[in-house]
Design brief:
Blueprint (H helix, E strand, L loop, with lengths): L1 H20 L16 E4 L3 E2 L6 H16 L3 E2 L7 E17 L5 E16 L4 E16 L9 H22 L26
Parallel strand pairs: 1-3, 1-4, 2-4
Antiparallel strand pairs: 4-5, 5-6
């Protein structure tokens, strides 16, 4: 009796293993609604102390949508959807120094919040709250090094491609970085009772 139970359990385990290997999770594409044919890229806002970042990212995003060609790019009055974005963080950090403590390698990190507005429904269809791009680069004084402006240009290209990919390919194609916040801590104070 014990042998039969073990044999049946082993057979069920083998069947379960074979069945699960054929199952592949493929979520349905979540593209934009059919009424959206033309989109507008509203000029990005800049919440950083760096001047002029918003113009470069807006132009790069427009160029990427034009290259992609899936949706026509038009003015906000003629579009059914609007890309709304905000540059929230611009962090330039020296991460390597030479013997004289002069920075030789930098890390540039830009975090952008991007949303897509369906004008007809007057609601946001998707949001990437912390779309992040990182560039490590050598100082311009070194062979093959970059200036900060050149490093920024490569980040604008990465972010613009991610925005187009998120719009055209749908949900799951781009993932935002986690919002690193300290959650509020609840403090419970107990007072001794007079009993």
């Amino acid at each position: 009796m014990k042998k039969n139970i073990l044999t049946v359990a082993a057979a069920l385990a083998l069947c379960a293993c074979g069945a699960t290997s054929d199952i592949v999770y493929r979520p349905a594409e979540q593209k934009l609604p059919q009424h959206i044919k033309r989109i507008c890229i509203r000029p990005f806002t800049n919440k950083t102390p760096q001047f002029g970042l918003e113009e470069k990212l807006t132009l790069k995003a427009i160029n990427e949508f034009l290259k992609n060609g899936e949706y026509a790019v038009s003015s906000e009055g003629n579009s059914q959807g609007v890309i709304v974005g905000e540059i929230n963080r611009y962090i330039l950090t020296p991460i390597q120094y030479d013997v004289n403590l002069v920075p030789t390698v930098y890390k540039l990190n830009v975090i952008v919040m991007v949303r897509f507005l369906d004008k007809e429904a007057n609601r946001y269809l998707w949001e990437e709250p912390a779309l992040e791009a990182i560039k490590l680069y050598s100082a311009a004084t070194l062979p093959g090094g970059l200036t900060e402006e050149q490093a920024r240009e490569s980040l604008w290209e990465i972010l613009a491609k991610d925005i187009v990919k998120r719009t055209v390919k749908g949900f799951g194609s781009v993932t935002s970085a986690s919002q690193r916040k300290i959650s509020p801590v609840e403090v419970i104070v107990s007072t001794p009772t007079g009993k």
